[in-house]
Amino acid sequence: MTQFPAIQLRKVQFDPTKVRRDFPILQTKSHGHPLIYLDNGATTQKPRAVIDAISHYYEAQNANVHRGVYELSQIATQAYETARATVQRFIHAADSAEIIFTRGTTESINLVASSWSRAFLKAGDEVIVSALEHHSNIVPWQMACELAGAKLRVIPMNDAGELLMDEFAKLLNPRTKMVAVNHLSNSLGTINPVEEIIQQAHAVGAMVLIDGAQWVAHSPTDVQKLNADFYCFSGHKLFGPTGIGVLYGKRAILEAMPPFMGGGDMIRSVTFEKTEYADLPNKFEAGTPDICGAIGLGAAIDYVMGIGFENFEPYVDELLAYATEKLSAIQGLRIIGTASHKAGVISFVMDDPVISPLDLGTQLDSQGIAVRTGHHCCQPVMDRFKINATTRASFAMYNTREDVDALVTALKKIIGAFAAKSPAVVAPKSMELKYPSATAASPELAADQLAEVFEFLGDRDARNEYLLELGEKLLPLPAGLKTDAARVHGCMSTVHVVGHRRAGDGHRLDFLGDSDAHIVRGLIAVVQKLFAGQEAKAILAFDVQAFFQRIGLEQFVSAQRRNGLQGMVQRIRDLAGKIEFAKNL
């Protein structure tokens, strides 16, 4: 059993059932079960107040902003700028001009990494990020460093998922120009000591960007008290709409930065000889903004402030402690990320029996429980813990102990079912494998046969069960064939595919595949039935996406980042393409 710091379970005076009534989607069902939504780290649900604000805008206020002299445009402009003032108050910015509306945290970080770097980052400079960062706070800085000739450095973390502040201090030097870290880790729930990070970075003359995407819905934010140079967050993680976000920046820094994009509303005057840029915040808001999104975000902030962090923050902390205690008591379950300061997130893996996060997520979904599975756009975090993915439950103020109990009960049921199954097929020791024969004369005929089976099965649950059965029968690849060259990278599973031209018939493809996820092994078996032993030309001509939609498995087709299916099919097509190329030489 995983050991944790002492957990204090408290009785908090907050009634989440009253809050739940404000969220229409929480009254719905999923697969015939009451929806239990535990994926708030990915996006939060929207209260009626936000939904109504969005509807009201399109019903009574819809017009473009800043440009029209007519009344409706003036009303829309006022609503849009009122939302900006609401954000200013929410994060305690000194000036509403320091609030830039973007599409979300990702765009906010990219704006700074691009625009600030053009003005301030030079060859030989250094940018520091942490080992806990979302890809959105890594990749833009890699790009900026590459363009400038600067160096990216990383704050390491310990086994609990906490940043090593002594190592951070060693990284800081006069060449450090930017430190970019998250306030709250989306993958582990770690609360980073951002105040200390900002103070130490400023001491060497570096600027600091804080990714607050996960933080702002959990606890109050005061950018002036933090003294952050930049602070970013997204509306959809704050009970607001998708497609809207915020970049806060200190006025003096924003004014010294060049625009991120050019176009309407970010200009003062334009001639073919020269363009003069508008004042803040318009300078960084080129084109028609997401007016409705900003209004919806303003409504979400008003809703949250109406409830009060002081009322629901202690409740969510207590709920996290309760969930941690219940989940850590499950035999074979290992929580990843045991920092002493956490908020709202529990990530875990199943070690005994070994159950892939993808399989867990699929099985939980069948019981109406929505969790996130995968690397959560934090592959370096997964690499640090030597895992491919986790299952993540993330909590909001409308979640309850009953939600946690349902999750625990469902997990125990799934674990029992996996443990009761016959032992997995042992991978053959020999590297000489028997490749499956073609199941039909062409991929089209094989597809027709499979379609009949899936049509007979009917609903999604029955189809998933069939995939699991196929996966159990799939012969594993020998470890020697599971090389990096054979790896097909997916988000929630490890997939390997090997193949070659059929001996004696160089027009046909033989291939085998394997995965650590039962459901993906089933998908591999389906693809084998389609393509194994088929002519390369026929494989290249077959529309796999249309076929998976035809048999009701389109959720896997559209999930390239989630299970590697698209990558696996592409690998097979690449193998077939090589056969065709060789044939035509």
Can you characterise this structure?
There is one protein chain. With 585 residues, the chain is of the alpha/beta class. The chain has 3 domains: 16-41 and 310-420, Aspartate Aminotransferase, domain 1 (Alpha-Beta Complex), CATH 3.90.1150.10; 50-306, Aspartate Aminotransferase, domain 2 (3-Layer(aba) Sandwich); 443-583, Sufe protein. Chain: A. Helices cover 43% and strands 16% of the residues. It contains 22 helices and 21 strands. The protein has a 7-stranded mixed sheet, with helices on both faces. Strands 13, 14, 15, 17 and 18 form a 5-stranded antiparallel sheet that branches. Strand 13 (333-336) and strand 14 (345-351) form a beta hairpin. Helix 3 crosses helix 10. The longest helix has 21 residues, at 71-91. The model is unreliable at 1-9 (pLDDT under 50).
Features:
Sufe protein. Chain: A, 7-stranded mixed beta sheet, 43% helix, Aspartate Aminotransferase, domain 1, 5-stranded antiparallel beta sheet, 3 domains, alpha/beta, 585 residues
Strand arrangement in the largest pleated sheet: 4-10-9-8-7-5-6
Relative helix content: 40-55%
Number of strands: 21
CATH superfamily of the largest domain: Type I PLP-dependent aspartate aminotransferase-like (Major domain)
Report low-confidence residues grouped into runs of 5 or more. Answer: 1-9
Regarding quaternary structure, how should these chains be classified? single chain
In the CATH hierarchy, what is the class of the largest domain?
Alpha Beta
CATH topology of the largest domain: Aspartate Aminotransferase, domain 2
**Number of helices, where a helix is a run of at least 4 consecutive DSSP H or I residues:** 22
In what range is the share of β-strand residues?
15-25%
How much is the average pLDDT?
91
The class by helix and strand makeup works out as alpha/beta
> What does the radius of gyration come to?
26 Å
- Spatial separation of the terminal alpha carbons: 60 Å
